[in-house]
Design goal:
The protein is an alpha+beta fold. The chain folds into two domains: 3-204, Vaccinia Virus protein VP39 (Rossmann fold, 3-Layer(aba) Sandwich), CATH 3.40.50; 219-349. The protein contains ten helices and 20 strands. Helix 6 links the parallel strand 4 (108-113) and strand 5. The structure holds S-adenosylmethionine (SAM). S-adenosylmethionine binds at residues 61-65, 88-89, 91-92, 94-95, 112-115, 118, 138-140, 155-156, 207-208, 210-212.
């Protein structure tokens, strides 16, 4: 068996728990290396994202997403033979090819990307895939020419739900979006519910953000090479100062609570997003800046969350097998550490709510909320509850 086939099979074996046989068969049928021709085969067939384009500050603006999360979202989307699919965020074209495989010869896929160069490259990769068309444009407008679509998927993080997507999706259609919940993303499979939407499934995810006319207010900044700071609600905070504060650790406090990385990613970060307006996220990739990041995907890829405000910062820490704690930085670090650990204890006391059982409703902005946490966007009001 050719080397890449064995490596592809090993990669598919790694993601079997995330999707059913139809989706896994698509991953076997569509080789990822055709969409990443300049990347070493070893790297292509790992279950990790591969960045393909960065902006002038070094922030990733295009990539081939992590296969596991692609599998999760394709499962959520449930594409059937013969369906018409719209993808926002063509990137390399790999996911569009998987969608094309799932829709079959009688179905079709339109994929849109905001960057002309990305579109040109994706078209090259998809030259032998006749049921997929790639167009250049702002995906916030959808692609009206191909509507109505049976399925719509965003492979880029969205802050709000565009009215164009509602207009272009067939009445019984389904859409899957990495949706911003105050800085935390969840991949939500939505179906229509009256004049709004209701979630059919919700999964943790983490995508680069949509650019263009519907980009959200969140500030995302590379504060050091490979270290990205996200401030969901910047409140006038200076992201560069927050980067500098990392050199000014003050104190460290540890709780007696054992919390796994998956619980931080799937539950505690969502709790902070909903309950702490000044929360922030730090992600590292390719560098090891965060010595005790509670979420670690690879030795040099990790994530932590915390609270930033005044002239200070507090971040969650979890040295290998120990309980969760927090480190403070800067003049206000001590106060913020106490505040952060109070959130950890409150989340624990509430039964450690996570992503499973989460229900997201998206209703028109003026609709009265009937219970649940409310997050207001421009075109939608999100109502989040736990079932
Ligand atoms: C994570 S990549 C998509 C991965 C892709 N589906 C694949 O399989 O390779 C996100 C893409 O979204 C694109 N994007 C960002 N904002 C956009 C917008 N407003 N409209 C369309 N595409 C956008 C980026 O240029 C980038 O290529």
């Amino acid at each position: 068996m050719a080397g890449w086939r064995r490596q592809r099979d090993q990669m598919v074996d790694m993601i079997t728990s995330y999707a059913g046989e139809r989706v896994l068969a698509a991953f076997r049928a569509v080789p990822r290396h055709r969409f990443l021709p300049e990347v070493a085969i070893d790297e292509v067939y790992r279950d990790q994202p591969v960045v393909t384009r960065r902006d002038e500050s070094g922030l990733p603006i295009s990539s081939s997403s992590q296969p596991a999360i692609m599998a999760v979202m394709l499962e959520q989307l449930d594409v059937r033979e013969g369906q018409r699919v719209l993808e926002i965020g063509a990137g390399t074209g790999f996911n569009a090819a998987l969608l094309g495989h799932l829709a079959g010869d009688t179905g079709s896929v339109v994929s849109v990307d905001i960057d002309q160069e990305t579109v040109d490259t994706a078209r090259k990769h998809l030259a032998d895939t006749p049921n997929v068309t790639v167009v250049c444009g702002d995906g916030a407008d959808g692609v009206p020419d191909g509507a109505p679509y049976d399925r719509l998927i965003c492979t880029v993080g969205v802050w709000d739900i565009s009215p164009s997507w509602r207009d272009q999706l067939a009445p019984a259609g389904r859409m899957v979006l990495p949706l911003d919940l105050r800085g935390v993303q969840r991949s939500v499979a939505f179906e229509r519910d009256g004049d709004g939407w209701v979630s059919r499934s919700v999964e943790p995810c983490g995508f680069m953000r949509l650019r263009g006319r519907m980009a959200g207010p969140e500030v995302v900044r590379m504060v050091r090479p490979g270290l990205t700071l996200s401030l969901p609600d910047p409140h006038g905070l200076d992201p560069d100062r927050i980067g500098q504060l990392l050199d000014e650790p003050t104190n460290e406090q540890v709780t007696d609570l054992m919390v796994s990385g998956a619980e931080v990613f799937g539950g505690l970060s969502l709790w902070l997003a909903i309950h702490e307006p000044a929360w922030c996220v730090l992600n590292e990739h390719g560098h090891r800046w965060l010595a005790a990041a509670p979420v670690r995907m690879q030795p040099d890829t990790g994530m932590t969350a915390g609270v930033a405000g005044g002239d200070g910062l507090a971040l969650l820490t979890k040295p290998d097998e120990s309980a969760i704690g927090a480190t403070g930085f800067g003049a206000d670090g001590d106060v913020l550490t106490v505040r952060l650990l109070d959130h950890v204890r409150a989340w624990h006391a509430a039964g450690r709510p996570g992503t499973s059982g989460l229900c997201v409703k998206a209703v028109p902005p003026t609709t009265p909320a009937d219970g649940g946490e409310v997050i207001d966007k421009t075109y939608t009001r999100l109502v989040i509850s736990q079932t």
